[in-house]
Amino acid sequence: MEKYIGLENILDKSRIKYNEPMKNHTTMKVGGNCDCLVLPESIEEIKNIITYAKENKIDYYVIGNGSNLLVVDEGVHALIIKITNKFAKVDVIGEEIIATSGASMPIVSINARKNSLTGFEFACGIPGTIGGGVRMNAGAYGGEIADIFVEATYLDTDGSIKNISKEKMNFGYRHTYFSDNPELIILSAKFKLKKGSQEEIAKKMEENAVARRTKQPLEYPNFGSVFKRPEGYFVGKLVSDSGLRGYTIGGAQVSEKHTGFIVNKNNATCKDIVELIRYVQKSVYEKYGVHLKTEVVFIGGEI
User: Which of 44, 268, 291, 300 is the most buried (most CB within 10 A)?
Assistant: First the structure.
């Protein structure tokens, strides 16, 4: 594409994909094409790509594994910077783990187990990256990133690399300093764990994995949890008690296995999913007066 002339001076052309279907880069498997998707493998490449985008007045988005990402059917005229496992390094130093943002949450949990470190078991089944996990304070099975977080390194809007401590992260339920400042790009994070029994750690991880396989609709593409848990309620119960188990719009369905999930049952479109999310929100609000807020990041529109 003429608009992206010069990009090949920054990245090998094998890591530049034009007119790329975004459904290939989200766990929900929906989304139109983006103008260009790039796959950086170093901090320097990320810095150079963003400088290039700004100089050429090109809109850009940074994504990870796409586990909570929804892209409009029409696609987006933008540069997508995908942080993959090529930008994934995990170092264990004593009771601390330092992981770059492209490292997957399960891989980091496995590294913790191998080094007899407890505290990361909750993340063994979360299908996202460290960057995404830190940004949203990901959690499961009674644990969350905030419990073990020490500091993160990020790329600021002026191109400088900065650190942020736990005290300044403004941790909340699925909320952080980075969710308030989406233009900042997480590069790595440090976590403080504790020495434990490798056998007990492995046992806990297996328990979590079994719970995930039996209770979550892994047989269909999905986001994971669609909605944030409202204080005093459980999303799945609210949706189920509103009579929405299995409710379908187009190819999108409220999961019959876990009503806190929406699944791509049959070639769903982004439009199907957005309409179903809105219908669930409307139904739950009318019945219980509770507004369900989404955890989903939406590129190209609003939910």
Answer: 268
